[in-house]
Amino acid sequence: MVIADEGELVRSSRKGDLDAFNTLVQVYQRQVYNLCLRMLGSAAAEDAAQEAFISAYRRLDSFRGGSFRAWLLRIAANICCDELRRRRRRPAASLEAALEAGSPADVPSHLAGPEEEALRRELARHLQQGLATVPAEQRLAIILRDIHGLSYEELAEALGCSLGTVKSRIARGRARMREYLVARRELLPRRFRLKE
Questions:
Q1: C-alpha span between 121 and 113 (Å, rounded)
Q2: Lower CB density within 10 Å: C or N end of the chain?
Q3: pTM of this prediction?
């Protein structure tokens, strides 16, 4: 969905225009949900995404301009980081989480046949497992850059850190992902196997 004037929608939303804010939600809901999904897994992603939009609506007055998308994704990222901290303080093993860990990502595919679909799902599962091993701040930087396509400048704004820190987090996170995948290359579909 393309927005004619995002700034006008934000201004209208600040004045209480719920339809304008709903338009912003429609534009960004997939990106926010995908960020939460990759940070938390599917069990908590919907709740975190919903919480992000509620928080954004309540905090519209704190938006000072710039990239609304970066601002919104930062809110979602903060909610995900809070949830990850909560999980570390109160670890709990649930049947839902165990079942979720064994299931592939629910991402639609346009591949030809069942074998290609199975390979894609297997790769998605390995990538998600690898992402889960990357520290949260590096994982967030990778997700925002490589999946959501934020520029380095938008990332610096969204993460509230310097450009050098953003680049460092991305480089370290990608290195960890590579180590994870190289160590498990035999589990990857043959065409995706990395060489040492």
A1: 12
A2: C
A3: 0.63
Residue extents of the structural domains in the chain: 1-103, 105-196
CATH of domain 1-103: 1.10.1740.10
pLDDT for 99 equals: 37
Residues in the chain: 196
Question: What's the pLDDT at 144?
Answer: 87
Domain 105-196 has CATH 1.10.10.10: yes
